[in-house]
Structure formats: C-alpha cells, structure tokens
Amino acid sequence: MKKTTVLLLSLFFSAPTLAQTLTVDNYLAQVKQSNPGMESAILLEEAAAELQNEGQHLYAPNLFADYAHVYDKRPTLIPAFQGNKTVQDILHLGVKQQTGFGLQSSVYYAMNTSTIYGVDPLFYPQPHLNVESINLELKQSLLQNGFGRSTRAVIASRNAQRLANLHHQKFQRKIVTSEAENNYWQLSITRALVAVQQNSLDRTNQFHKLNAKRAKLHLIDNADLVASEAALKQRELELKNAIDQEKVAARMFNESRGINSDQVLETLDSVSPEFIATLPEIQKLLNGDDVKAAQADVEVQRTSAVAARDERLPTLDMIAKLSTNGLDPTWENALDQTIGTNYPAITVGASLNVPLDFSKNNKVRKAYDKQIQGAQKATNTPYYPRTFPGTHSINSGWIAKSRLILRQNFAKPKPPNRKRSVTVSKMTQHNLSGFPF
What we know:
By secondary structure, the chain is an alpha+beta fold. The protein has helices at 2-14, 24-34, 36-50, 79-82, 149-216, 222-256, 273-278, 289-310, 331-339, 358-379, 396-411; strands at residues 21-22, 62-72, 85-98, 103-117, 128-141, 267-268, 283-284, 315-328, 344-353, 387-388. The strands form three sheets. The protein has a six-stranded antiparallel β-sheet with strand order 2-3-4-5-8-9. A two-stranded parallel sheet has the order 1-6. A two-stranded antiparallel sheet has the order 7-10. β3 and β4 (103-117) form a beta hairpin. The longest helix is centred in the middle third of the chain and has 68 residues, at 149-216.
C-alpha cells in the first residue's frame, strides 16, 4: 500500500503541467484589473462623470458671515459727546445667490452693538445701543453680463470642459483596451510564426542532408550544395528573428496586464481563417467618444469666447435695497423692531462703469466674434474618427492583411509538386512577411 501511494505521488508531481488556455476576454479582464493605464482611465472617467454638471454650482445659494470686533480709543475733539473709548461688535449673516438671468440677490441680518465710554449722560443718555436690520439686496446686470449672458456662458464652458474630459477618458480606455487586444493577437501570431519557421527550418535541414548525400555521389553540383547551406543559414536566422519577435510580443503582452516578464505560460487562441471570417466588417463610429470630445472642445472655445467678449462691455447695474431696522439698548427689543415694518429703509439706484479705451475694446471684441464664428463653423464640420471594427478593437489594417495572408497561405492549399528532382531554389515557401509585427 505504501509503495502504491509513493508511486501515485511521484507520478502526480512528475507529470507535466498542462498550460491553461487564456482567452482574449479573460486576458482583457486581467488588463482591466492590473494595467496602470486602464486603472487611471477608469478612475478619471468616474471622476469626470461625477463632475459633469459642476458648472451648475454657480447657481447654488451661498451662506456668508462677517464679524468684526472694534476697540477704538483714539482721541476725540469733544469727549462729552464722543467719549474717550468705543467698543463695537459688527455681524453680518445671510444667504446670497446668482440666478441665470443676471440677478444677484442676498438676504442677510446685520447687527452693530456699540458702547461709548466717557460721554456725558446729559448729552448721551444711551451709551450702549444695538442697531439691527434685516436686509434684501437686489442687483440686476443690464450691459456686461446682461440678463445673465456671461454667467450662462461660464457655466456652459465648465460643463463642456467636464464633458470633453469624460469622453477623452472613455476614449483613452478604449485605446488601452485596443492596444491590449492587439498585444494578445500579436503574441498568438508570433507563436504561430515561430512554429512555421521551425517547420521550414526542419524541412530545409532535410533537403540539405539530402543534397549533401547527392553531392557525395556527384549527382548535383557543389554550387547547389552551397546554395542549400545558405538556405539553411537563412532559415536559422529567420527562426531566431521569429523567436526574438515572440519575446518582444510576450513582454508587451505581460506589460499590458502589469507583469514585468517576457515569459507567457498560458496558451492563447489561434488566429484561424474561420476566426477571421467571423470578424465584423469595419465600421466608422460617426458618434464615438473621440467625436463627442472634439465637439465638446469646440463648445468650450465658443462659450469661453462669449464670456471673454462680454467682459469688454460697460457695466450697468440696477440696485435695490429694502431693510427693516431696529434700535434699542437691549438686543431683544431691537430684534423685535426689525421683524416689523415700522422702520423701513428703501434704496434704489444704478451703477455705471465705462472703459475709456474704446478702440482697443472694439478690436478685442471683434477678435472674440471671429473666434465665436470659427467655433460655430467647426461645429458643422464633419469629424473623421478612428476606426474600430465592431466589437473588436483590432486595427483595420491588421484585419485586412490577416484575412488576405490567411486566405492565400491556408485557405487554398497549393497542389503538391510532382517533380522528382527538388532543389532549394524551387522549394515552396510560406511567406508571412505581411503580418504587421
């Protein structure tokens, strides 16, 4: 029983391990998990997708608060009225928001608590006061950023930038996948090429031995023997070149899945005429990620030019302010007064700012107009995207050459040569130089 167990264990450990077949889908799954470029593209794509509508945050309300403590002991002209020291606490707390039609609004609470020391009570009976107010301020742009034109352009530019980045990262992920799949098939082809070159070397070696025997019997000339030796050396060089190409392809194959080695133990799917025949026809994706990214880049140029052109306009803003106020030594009573409408304050006005360098501004605005027109014309220009053959991301030239070579060399076998005298110069050679290695 012990001898049987030892024999089984020895057979188990001495048996050669069968190489596992690695399909292209499993290989691409490894690339997705281990390739740094793929991992980077996936993370950047996820980030770009989450930041796609970042520009809309300009419309979000913002909470603001300002606080200042003032300690003023500067000398005064009339201390009886102005005192010799003033202490203030100033607070502003509110919410402001920018709208899409150019209106800036803010609602805030203002408080100013002041205490004046050293005043005469006869002239200043309340040295401690609380001044409070609830304010509503409105500002409408009419010329520069007229009715929100520049704000909408800035938001559209930001959104277009994020959209372009999203499609750039999607396309980058496709490029990494395409390169990895090309590396897979390149290694498969180079392995087949090594086998073909090894077979060619073996056949040439047999012909050389046959010619050497014939030379000893003086059935062929010495020139034919020398040609046979030269052909043998050529086949050896071709085999060495094919092996070197296989090592390079294996290293690229491993680098795509994050492995630093030129040894690939797995077996790969072979490229057969049946496989080539099942590949879909070459199609141009007229609305691919590269096209969408280019269109988004054009939109960025247009909206950025609109916003920059708008900055050269004069500024004309309509301003309105409504506030309810309270004044009392105690904070509670002053707050009660601000809630009512007994002490309102209304302010209406306008603000104008005109740049005086008219010629330079007009020149710059015309340049931005040209940029906007150029971007609009570029939007109507057809794009010529990169070509991806259906579900496979193999280069179209690779497929065309592979189909042609496989059909010429494998699909239609040549009839055997029935001549008895075979020389090296007339041997049938499989030419695989058309493969894109």
